[in-house]
## 1
Amino acid sequence: MSTGIETWNTNLLEVSEVYPFVGTEGILAFVGIASWIIWHIIQIRSENKALAEEEAFFQDKAKLAAARKLSNAETVSETARAHASGL
């Protein structure tokens, strides 16, 4: 890709576009900011959904107790026993 300029020893006021898509900076900035905001909205909804699923899963007190027991396991055999007991 070339700018078409043979030498930079010229009056720069006479030089026109030296890069592609001149004039689209505002549109591209708007698209970038809008996509960033949309991504945040999608991310927040996704995290809220995952949080609600986890909250619903641990409403059962037996599953919650098993998860606590599993998280306190210090050996592989304790972890296996906790899994076998119904988590």
## 2
Amino acid sequence: MLRIRLTRGGAKQRPFYRIVVADSRAPRDGRFIEKLGSYNPMLPRDHADRLVIKEERVKYWLGIGAQPSDRVARFLGITGIAPAPAQAEQTKQAAPKKKAQDRAAEKAKAAAAAASAEG
């Protein structure tokens, strides 16, 4: 199965990524079929060279059946080459665990008892 994905390059603390078509079984930074673009997260968001994609070649590979990785699919949605993937909704806060609920209930009881003793 073909994947359109990122391969990492650059130095430590200075990442640089190439957007490539590779077999899904190939190592992340290993053999690839074709380079389709690049992504440099070190550049500002509005810089022209931050995300460079060969649009025609990406469309060709998508037409053949290559599947983009999650990050590349987001890039393709930003550039308008493919529809943007649906964003998973993030929960604002996870429900507290049982022990935390018990502690909160005890604290509320203590506060209520203190308030009734004063009044």
## 3
Amino acid sequence: MFGLETYLAVLFLLCVITVCVFEFANGFHDTANAVATVIYTNSLKPTYAVVWSGFCNFLGLFVSSYFGFKVAMGIVNLLPLTDLVMMSTGESASLVLGMMLSGILWNLGTWYFGIPCSSSHTMIGSILGVGIVFYWLHGGDGVNWGKASEIGLSLLISPFIGFSITILLMYILKRVVKVRKEIFKEPELGQRPPSWIRGILILTCTMVSFFHGNNDGQKGIGLMLIILITFLPIQFALDEKFDANVCLNSVVNIENALKAENKVDLIIKTNDLKENVNSYIAIKSNSNELPTEFKKQTVVLRTKIAKLIKRLETDIKSKTFADNPQNVTAIEEEIKYLKKSTESIPYWVTIMIALSLGLGTMIGWKRIAVTIGEKIGKRHMTYAEGASAELTAAFTIGLSTQFGLPVSTTHVLSSGVAGAMTASKGVKNLQPATIKAIAIAWLLTLPVTITLAGLLYYLLSLVLK
């Protein structure tokens, strides 16, 4: 018979595995978009293309560790972590497994039929589904609808950006390029394009793959962090080197700068945070006698710090502080420390997700790539169309990452391909059946994943109580 510790370890391991599987599926589902252009223009052989794209995905996520995980933190903040920590381990596992299995099933289903579908929409729908059912069962905060609306708007407008900017790029290219018109030709069967065209297309493929890893990989890190904080809050809710006394000193320094600015409302928030830090210190000293309270207080403190950081950054950006650079500089220095306390990601998590995403890219890419390369337009893409679509996707994904917003690589690139085809010969150049299938999948993704994730969570919670 399994002991309790073994049972809990198995549940934890299952949840971790499902995140890795989701990112693996994300790799061959989404990154197929990036390799489609270089493969269908004969710029790279399929084997070289997918291996190179997989490496760039790995590199993109690994590099993001040096610039912060804004997208990952946005995912983490969608769910009420404090409430999740107080749940039984079985129900916590039910929520995570329901969320991840929903995403995996929808990703695999759309991949099987070769339909480009957004893993980002899939993931957001799954998170919303379990969040809604959690609220129905337990009350509390449920979903962070403010953050969900922000992410939803990003996902909604990204296809229109992809479509519009690609049309604009094609328009500019046709008027700027007066020589070397071969860039507007379709690839000839079995013939490689000129080296300069190959260089452009390999570069754009590299950019899309890199920024896809940078953005989509962070989603996997966010999901993994939800699991770690839910199961092991004391170890992962705050940085492993977190020192409550140093944190308290940092908050006092912020408070002093705020007093000089006479920011009364923010001073109240710093006082509240100081009380939380002191509570954390007091409970930590009795953590053996009060383990449940210590878990809760650790997550509460993390949440309070994150909220204060967000408010301070908002005020600094909107320039509501008086014209005193020293106060702003002092606050910004303390924000850096506090961010490190709440946004620290273990390297093994980054490597695990990066490997899952990179390896997934190298397997199963063909179904989606065929749709992108052959079925959106009524003919093969020209070199200019492929490069324009990928350049637009890389720009949009990279910009979204800087703002901490998850964006759909699939939606942006598919829309870009459609925009490029439309720019060449109008809407009649698109294949209606394929566009219709993609549109239906896009429209169904949120309602299906919300329903499926919520149902799976509820059923699993009955079994794993």
## 4
Amino acid sequence: MIVEEQWPFASVSSEITYQIQKEGFDYLDAPIRRITAADAPLHYAPNLVAAALPDVPRTVKLVKEVMYMKK
């Protein structure tokens, strides 16, 4: 699981994901998941910024999904 407040395209997390899959694919127990900002320009309104950036509930939900936990 890689969490980053950057756009998904050409970000640090995309390079980390590439290197992990290139060098350590056989050691992975689950697919690599990235949580990034929305692939759109960042807004000025605080509620839209909060919706576009990664947050704790979304991160916890996706971590549990990767760990094959139901709840």
